Automatic annotation (TrEMBL):
Protein family according to the UniProt entry: Belongs to the glucosamine/galactosamine-6-phosphate isomerase family. 6-phosphogluconolactonase subfamily.
Catalyzed chemical reaction(s): 6-phospho-D-glucono-1,5-lactone + H2O = 6-phospho-D-gluconate + H(+)
The protein's Enzyme Commission number: 3.1.1.31
Pfam families with a match to the protein in the record: Glucosamine_iso
EC category: hydrolase
Organism: Ananas comosus
Gene name per UniProt: LOC109721286
Recorded superkingdom: Eukaryota
Name listed for the protein in its UniProt record: Probable 6-phosphogluconolactonase
Signal peptide start-end: none
């Protein structure tokens, strides 16, 4: 099996993955079988402070022998629309070459593992509450120009792609995520439009496994619910 982790973008998640840079993992993992993608990325230069690629490079990729040709970052020299199109094209080429499988339920790529973080508003990747990008079904990668969090321009995997993965892990840390975590994990929400208000509720692999990892502050509103 080729591992295709989709990189999370929070500092606490990076700290966990840094364990893989240490013995015994660094010596036992077959890094040649790893392919790295990003579920979402900010449309900024790779050396920009807001770049997820920059953070990943500094904290992880520079410390492990993953092949450069197996690291798929976005083109930061084109418009965000073109960057999204090029990213989807690169993934489609991997599917065509059979280096990346396809879901039996749809024509979406089937990544081995997608790791997501969740914002205080319940967003995952760059899929924000009640945003039109949540309803995109015919594309693998889309783009937004009006992110409620800076920077405004981003590319993001669509929900069908996320939900086609073999494994999806949602890692949530911090008390500021507690309300959204309660709505997403326990299903307790007084609104009828909870799914669009809390995109994390829409993450549900079609033919895969979903796992939530919450620290105590993030799980503080779950009460007696299992977490």
């Amino acid at each position: 099996m080729i591992w295709r982790p989709i990189w999370p973008n929070t500092s606490r998640n990076y700290q966990r993955f840094q364990k893989l840079c240490e013995a015994p993992y660094s010596m036992t993992v077959d890094w040649t079988r790893w392919y790295i993608f990003w579920t979402d990325e900010r449309a900024v230069a790779k050396n920009h402070a807001d770049s997820n690629y920059k953070t990943t490079k500094e904290r992880f990729l520079s410390k492990v022998p993953i092949l450069n040709s197996h690291v798929y970052s976005i083109n930061d020299n084109v418009t965000v629309e073109d960057a999204a199109g090029e990213y989807e094209f690169a993934i489609r080429q991997l599917v065509k070459l059979r280096k990346l499988g396809v879901s039996e339920s749809n024509d979406c790529p089937k990544f081995d593992l997608i790791i997501l973080s969740m914002g205080p508003d319940g967003h995952v990747a760059s899929l924000f509450p009640d945003h039109p990008a949540l309803r995109v079904k015919d594309e693998w990668v889309t783009f937004i120009t009006d992110s409620p969090e800076p920077p405004p321009e981003r590319i993001t995997f669509t929900l069908p792609v996320i939900n086609s993965a073999s494994n999806v892990a949602v890692v949530v840390t911090g008390e500021d995520k507690a309300t959204a975590a309660r709505a997403a994990v326990s299903g307790k929400c007084e609104r009828t439009d909870c799914s669009s208000l809390f995109p994390a509720r829409m993450v549900w692999p079609i033919d895969g496994t979903l796992a939530w990892f919450l620290d105590k502050p993030a799980a503080s509103d779950l009460g007696n619910a299992e977490h």
